[in-house]
């Protein structure tokens, strides 16, 4: 797993800044969410995030290099992705973002709001 020395980070270096170096890129946490929810194949992750394929490929590579996800080779030529212990440790963060999003980022009258309110993120991934 790649880690950072706080002194090497720009600005006011702290553990939050170090964490954002790993999962702060656009789409990174949505990739983790998709794998948590059981989308382990590349195409399923792309569909679930709605991101361009090249962006998801880049995020999976960076998350794999950081030790957040692991590539699991399958045949024929079909890799799957799984969360490592480090990736599973992001579950409370995604739960907090889900709650914050419902409370502060989603319109009160959004018809899909209650559907996502029932979304549960499991520590165990299929």
From TrEMBL:
Pfam families (alphabetical): HxlR
InterPro entries in UniProt: HTH_HxlR (IPR002577), WH-like_DNA-bd_sf (IPR036388), WH_DNA-bd_sf (IPR036390)
UniProt KW keywords: DNA-binding, Transcription, Transcription regulation
One term of GO molecular function: DNA binding
Database matches in PROSITE patterns: HTH_HXLR (PS51118)
Keyword Glycoprotein (UniProt): no
HTH hxlR-type domain sequence ranges: 14-109
The name this protein goes by in its record: HTH hxlR-type domain-containing protein
Lineage of producing organism: Bacteria, Bacillati, Actinomycetota, Actinomycetes, Mycobacteriales
């Amino acid at each position: 797993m790649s880690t950072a020395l706080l002194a090497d980070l720009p600005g006011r270096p702290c553990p939050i800044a170090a964490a954002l170096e790993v999962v702060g890129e656009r789409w990174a946490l949505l990739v983790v969410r998709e794998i948590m929810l059981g989308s382990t194949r590349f195409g399923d992750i792309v569909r679930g995030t709605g991101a361009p394929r090249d962006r998801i490929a880049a995020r999976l590579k960076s998350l794999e290099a950081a030790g957040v996800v692991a590539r699991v080779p399958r045949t024929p030529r079909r890799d799957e992705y799984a969360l490592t212990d480090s990736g599973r440790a992001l579950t409370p963060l995604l739960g907090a973002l889900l709650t914050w999003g419902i409370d502060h980022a989603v319109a009160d009258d959004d018809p899909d709001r209650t559907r996502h309110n029932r979304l549960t993120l499991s520590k165990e991934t299929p």
